[in-house]
Amino acid sequence: MITAYIGLGSNLGRPVDQLRAASIQIETVPGIERLLMSNLYKSAPMGSKIQPCYINAVAEIVTSLSPLDLLAELMRIETALGRVRSSERWSSRTIDLDVLLYGEKIINSKTLVIPHPGLYERAFVLYPLHEIAPHLVIPGHGPLSQLLTVCDKGDLELLTDVKTIIVA
Ligand code: ROI
Fold first, then answer.
1. Angle in degrees, CA 106, 107, 109, rounded to 5
2. Beta-carbon count within 10 A of 83 CB
3. CB count, 10 Å around CB of 18?
4. Domains in the chain, please, with CATH?
5. Residues 95, 37: contact at Cβ < 8 Å?
6. Which of 3, 30, 84, 121 is at 20 to 30 A from 73, Cα to Cα?
């Protein structure tokens, strides 16, 4: 069994509901044992100023799935929740599910790069990740707590009025 981390994001429709729905779907995948969700965070869109704000979270899972099988399951859930893939790189999305980390593994294939290439500089990933895994060491990049000290928090806002979704 491997501990892996998934990034969740949404900025279309009802983002909070979509993140909730995604966490429930992830938890019911055969081969995914346990799911721990961070709080939800709101931030301005990175990469494009004219989109709605994003809601983001990170989930810790324990899984027997291979990295590629996990990716396939996440893509299936994205489609089930109504995501339509745009050819535009920075487009809005109803739901975005990324494999951030898969144990200690470093993967650089055409279909999957782990650790996720955007992870190091994105406050909307690092802060929720730190909340649920404060002592994590990112393979190839050192302690997460160290990365946080050089990451610009920007306008990232912890949504304290939204109930934490922790599914044990
Ligand atoms: N910006 C924020 N704040 N959160 C995201 O999840 C997010 N996802 C994206 C891009 C368009 C890079 N910007 C984002 O894919």
1. 165
2. 19
3. 24
4. 2-158 (3.30.70.560)
5. no
6. 121
Query: Helix or strand or coil: residue 66?
Result: coil
Residue whose CA lies nearest to ligand 1 atom number 2: 45
Q: Which amino acid is at 63?
A: T
Q: What's the sign of the alpha-carbon dihedral 159, 46, 37, 146?
A: negative
Q: Is any atom of ligand 1 closer than 6 Å to the C-beta of 25? A: no
Give the active site residue among 14, 89, 98, 152.
Answer: 98
Residue 41, Cβ neighbours under 10 Å: how many?
Answer: 22
pLDDT tens for 105-122 read: 999 999 999 999 989 989
- The tens digit of pLDDT for each residue in 14-47 reads 899 999 999 999 999 999 998 999 999 999 998 8
Residue in this structure with the two tokens 């190091």, named with its chain if needed:
120
Q: Which residue has the higher pLDDT, 141 or 160?
A: 141
- Whether 45 is in the pocket of ligand 1, judged by its Cβ within 6 Å, is yes
Question: Is 69 part of the annotated catalytic residue set?
Answer: no
Residue 96 bears catalytic tag: yes
Quote the CA–CA distance of 5 and 72 in Å, as a whole number: 15
